[in-house]
Amino acid sequence: MRVLLQRVSRASVSLDDEIVASIDGGLVALAAAGEGDDADDLEYCIDKTAHLRVFEGPEGKMNRSVLETGGDVLVVPQFTLYANVDDGRRPSFFEAMDPGPAEEACNRYAEGLRAAGVDTVEEGVFGAAMDVELTNRGPVTIWLDSRR
User: Fold this and answer.
1) How far apart are the first and last CA of the chain?
2) Which of 29, 48, 76, 104 would you call most buried, defined as having the most Cβ atoms within 10 angstroms of its Cβ?
3) Taking residues 10-30, what's their average pLDDT?
4) Are 56 and 64 spatial neighbours (Cβ–Cβ below 8 Å)?
5) Half-sphere exposure of 31 (CA within 13 A, CB side)
6) Known catalytic membership, residue 80
């Protein structure tokens, strides 16, 4: 599983100019499942997202997690994280999981974050052409790959 985390002061997802999910601050998690991902890959990404210390504490250092700050998480399904551009000029997505199981994996990722204690977990719409708007705070952007 791959997740691109961005620390944000605000973020939203819109469909047809209507906001369907939004957060005031926390993390945007662009999430994709890959062929062969299993429960261990999912759990790795859930645990890292919930506990990764990317928010400043009183000393100004990144030593607090989204759980500790009470921040929100906006999960945005994004299969293009598995784009392969090694050959040619058009991305190939053969490493991405098929849509049905991938949607289930993204839903389980969001549910896992809730179970881990994240108070507010909002979700984009799987397979939709979404407009994602965010204000990256820092900026801080972290790449998670369960197979690295």
Assistant:
1) 10
2) 29
3) 97
4) yes
5) 32
6) yes
Res. 148: pLDDT tops 90: no
pLDDT tens digits along 67-104: 999 999 999 999 999 999 999 999 999 999 999 999 99
Is 66 a domain residue?
yes
Do the Cβ atoms of 5 and 49 come closer than 8 Å? yes
- Residue 31: the pLDDT is 98
User: Is 146 domain-assigned?
Assistant: no
Question: Span 32-59, mean pLDDT?
Answer: 97
6, 49, 55, 78: which is the annotated catalytic residue? 78
Q: Where are the alpha helices (DSSP H) in 11-130?
A: 39-51, 66-69, 99-116
Per the annotation, the verdict on 141 as an active-site residue is no
Q: Report yes or no on 143 lying in a domain.
A: no
Question: Could you tell me the pLDDT band of residue 138, with boundaries at 50, 70 and 90?
Answer: very high
Active-site annotation holds for 78: yes
- Residue 86, domain extent: 2-137
CATH of residue 104: 3.50.80.10
Choice among 79, 93, 94, 126 that is catalytic: 79
Total number of domains in the chain? 1
**Domain assignment present for 144:** no
